[in-house]
Amino acid sequence: MNKKKALITTAIDYTNDVIHVGQAYEKILADCVARYFRIKKGEENVKFLTGTDEHGTTSEKAAKARNLTPEEHVKDISKKDQEQIDCLDISYDRFIRTTDEDHVKTASEFFQKSYDNGDVYKASYEGLYCEGCESYKTLTELTEKGQCPLHPTREIQKIVEENYFFKWSKYVSFLKDLVSSERFVFPEGKKKEMLSFIEEGIRDIPITRPKYKLGWGITTPIDSEQVIYVWFDALINYYTFGKQNGFWDDETEIIHFVGKDISRWHVLLWPAMLKSAGIRVPDTVCVHGFITLNGEKISKSKGNIIKPSDLVEKYGSDAVRYYFLRYGPITEDVDISLDHFKEVYNSDLANGLGNTVARIAKLAEKSGFDFSLKGDKDYLDRFNVCTESFASFRVDLAIQKTWEYLSLLDKHITENEPWSIKDPEELKTILTYEVEEIRKIARVLEIFIPKTSQRIQEQFKNEKIVSQGGIFPRIL
Question: Where do the CATH 1.10.730.10 domains begin and end in the chain?
Fold first, then answer.
């Protein structure tokens, strides 16, 4: 895929509560890909979007529990979510809110287009609904006990109401061809899962709720007594931002990062919506797994919530970024623990990167040599090694390859023992190679751990190298 521009998005989070580290993983992942594309395509050709999904039952009920209006509640949670994301140095171009005026307008216009194209009709709905998912359920999607697998503590509601429906079934053939295409869904296992959903049968879906049931939403342009169903509303946020900035055209590679629990909406419903409205579909939907903590789902009810800021305060933002980029659930679920986090911090960062940088800086300073600077393009051989991994969005493999270069550099120091070399010419040759290697690696680290990258580049930017304190002090 060699399109000139790129639009990278994450899913937008419900505002029922502040995000935790499991939800923040997706932001770190997408941010890493956005940083990679900025180097490859140029800063001006890449846009990165994240934000909050503020309408629907969950937000309305959460507001009521806090004795706040929905507007007050979502504003507060959205602000706190943004603070959590900011502490991780997420380089988004916009933090969108589905209550933003431009989004409300775009969602209404989008709904109208589908209606005008004959894909929206009114009918009676009778079925099951999970408030946690904000979605309708079939019996096959529930457990043997009739519970939602993702929200087992919530009671499944039986709903009878008049809604407007979207002709989802009309687009089965289109969706089958799209999902079967080479690069639309990553990883491969998720493609097979989505095709299975299609084979099971896609039925038309309600896309509104009556106001007497749910008042907190965007009023439909065709019926003042109905609000747009939260998922139909939320998915449109990507288009709101993309079209506004000229990043929803054929020159743009559009990539969505989402968790596996919402993959069906992004892979199957969203493209059908776009097709209905006469708008181009995204290029790729990357689906990642879940994070569990010590073998348990991260949830408020279990009391094991960890906010990104909790880890950043203790370890720093780059340590958190590194851990989740290398060991996160890029293709399947992973279980994490604070003990493993600490172990990785000390082995990979303190004893690995931090120690190697400190050794080279100290040896270079002690030598008294000048180390001439080469052009900015000199690091591209290291950057290009990541290209194959990023082609399939495997940031974990890209960061692993970068650390392999670091290990080779550390091995070079140990084998050549520059501290024992007496011949000045030989010593300068050895140290020049090692200084250049750390400069190259530092540039590539901009993609993964930006603060550390800048700190190393600052330390090695002059011909005279000055030794400084440790980048990642060991934690006992």
Answer: 338-459
Strand partners, 121: 165
Residue 201 backbone zone (phi > 0: left; psi -120 to 50: alpha; other: beta): left
* pLDDT at 376 > cutoff 70: no
The predicted model scores a pTM of 0.92
The answer to whether residues 233 and 269 touch, using CB atoms and an 8 Å cutoff, is no
Q: How far apart are CA 224 and CA 221, in angstroms?
A: 7
CA 127/CA 284 separation, integer angstroms = 32
Say how far apart CA 179 and CA 289 lie, in whole Å. 19
pLDDT recorded at residue 147: 73
pLDDT one-digit tens code per residue, 7-36: 999 999 999 999 999 999 999 999 999 999
Query: In the structure, what pLDDT confidence band is assigned to residue 227 with cuts at 50, 70 and 90?
Result: very high
Q: Which residues contact 436 (CB under 8 A, 6 or more apart)?
A: 371, 374, 378
Domain 338-459 fold is: Isoleucyl-tRNA Synthetase; Domain 1 (1.10.730)
Listed in order, the ranges of the chain carrying CATH 3.40.50.620 are 5-297
The 10s digit of each residue's pLDDT in 401-423 is 999 999 999 999 999 999 999 99
Q: Which of 357, 316, 338, 348 is nearest to 87 (CA)?
A: 316
- Computed on alpha carbons and rounded to an integer, the radius of gyration of the chain in Å comes to 25
**Cβ-contact 24, 306 below 8 angstroms:** no
Fold classification of 5-297 (topology level): Rossmann fold (3.40.50)
Instruction: Write the DSSP string, 290-359.
Output: -EEETTEE--TTTT----HHHHHHHH-HHHHHHHHHHHS-SSS-EEE-HHHHHHHIIIIIIIIIIHHHHH
Overall average pLDDT of the 271-297 stretch: 96
Tens digits of per-residue pLDDT, 449-474? Answer: 999 999 999 999 999 999 987 899 99
SS3 content of the chain, % helix, strand, coil (to 5): 50, 15, 30
Q: Is 246 left (phi over 0), alpha (psi -120 to 50) or beta?
A: left
Query: What would the DSSP string read from start to end of 281-306?
Result: PPSEEEEE--EEETTEE--TTTT---
Secondary structure element (H or E) that encloses residue 336, with its range: strand 334-336
Whose tokens are 């009878």? That residue is 160
DSSP H/E element including 164? strand 157-166
Count of other CB atoms within 10 angstroms of residue 343: 11
